[in-house]
Amino acid sequence: MTSKRILLAVLAAVGLSACSYVPRIVTEYRIDVQQGNVLNQEMVAQLKPGQTRDQVRYLLGTPLLNDIFHAERWDYVYRLENGRTGAIETRRLTVFFNKDGRLERVAGDAEAASVAELAAPVARMQVVDLGSLPADGKPLPPNEQRGFFGRMLEKVGL
């Protein structure tokens, strides 16, 4: 009788200890949580001193924080939490305007364009005449080149 009680107690202890451990063979799916304004370096590089509030809003989007006590300051905050690794990536960008509502300076993780980049000539459109032949005299390639199955159907006569 006592051996049955000891065996029952051991089985109960093993059963209760099994409930406390969950093997991570199959993990649950966790999504990436993205909050705030997505800002990249290309967007910030388009900012130039003297731009209006509307131009900045067009380039960067509506600011996440628009403080009524600091009307000349817009804060853009971005946070991304990776669901798989749990790593958190944060970015912060603050845009300052002068009293006239023109862009004065930018502060934060991303940098605005440098003076050399702003002074560089802007590439204009390149005009291409589609109606003329190349100078080397080679004919233009056909408009549509057939793939493997198209060539096979052509050989068969379809």
Explain the overall architecture.
The protein is α+β, with helices and mostly antiparallel strands. The chain has a domain at 30-120: Beta-lactamase Inhibitory Protein, Chain:B, domain 1 (2-Layer Sandwich). Helix content is 29%, strand content 20%. It has helices at 2-20, 41-45, 53-60, 115-119, 148-156; strands spanning 33-36, 65-66, 73-81, 88-97, 103-108. Strands 1, 2, 3, 4 and 5 form a 5-stranded antiparallel beta sheet that branches. The radius of gyration is 32 Å and the shape is flat. 8% of the residues are buried.
From the structure above, extract its key features.
five-stranded antiparallel sheet, 5 strands, single chain, about 160 residues, alpha+beta, Beta-lactamase Inhibitory Protein, Chain:B, domain 1
Sum this structure up briefly.
This protein is of the alpha+beta class and 158 residues long. The chain is 29% helix and 20% strand.
Shape: flat
CATH class of the domain at 30-120: Alpha Beta
Question: Could you state the order of secondary-structure elements as H and E?
Answer: HEHHEEEEHH
Q: What is the averaged pLDDT score? A: 78
Class of secondary structure makeup: alpha+beta
What's the structural blueprint in terms of helices and strands?
Blueprint: H1 2-20, E1 33-36, H2 41-45, H3 53-60, E2 65-66, E3 73-81, E4 88-97, E5 103-108, H4 115-119, H5 148-156
Antiparallel strand pairs: 1-3, 2-3, 3-4, 4-5
